[in-house]
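Data availability (excerpt). The following record was deposited with the supplementary files.
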Amino acid sequence: MAGVRVTATADTDPVVAARAADDVSVLLLVSLIIAIGSGYTLLAALVHPVGKSSAVTVRRVRQQRGLRSRSWVEIDDGERSRWMPVYFDPVLVTVPSPTPATLVRTGIRPLVRIDGHRLFAAGKLREREPAGTLIDNPARADPQSRERGAQVARLPRRLILDAQFALPAPIIGGLWVYLRGGGVLTFALSCLVAAGVGIWLAAIAGSDPS
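Predicted structure:
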């Protein structure tokens, strides 16, 4: 009997070790992807604007598509209109539509300056209008828009908005346990990783809490 027990344990240990190694590999891969994506975004934000600049007219547009809300600027150079997603900035709430701005081409991503204030691009310039419901800023800014912009930019509100993308985490965690095996701890860690990735994706894409 004792020999049977020892053999079963010996057969099980390599399987458990291999499963744990696979889990660690997946976690490291996810961490690497997040680090690369965050590093690229930070580099694009900090790069010194040395490209060609041109005077343009912009409109701030808030896109609502399902649970997703993003800020865009519609850029008109007098010949055509293009759209660029930008990271939320309280200044966006105060910008009348349209308003004069400067478009600067850089080596990574273009940037827009409004009255000297830099808006950070959350993606590439696009030729087509974004899908979903688009809400323009009014032609005249609300006198209380500056105060409202500061309120909606607070971290708790932004986390609540981005946390919506963590809702599928239990489903992903359950699927991982079903496919890979494991117990409560594996499920909890899988949910935590999935929730973190969801919130990161929402933040890196440029969510709009306004």
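Summary of structural features: The chain has a mean pLDDT of 78.
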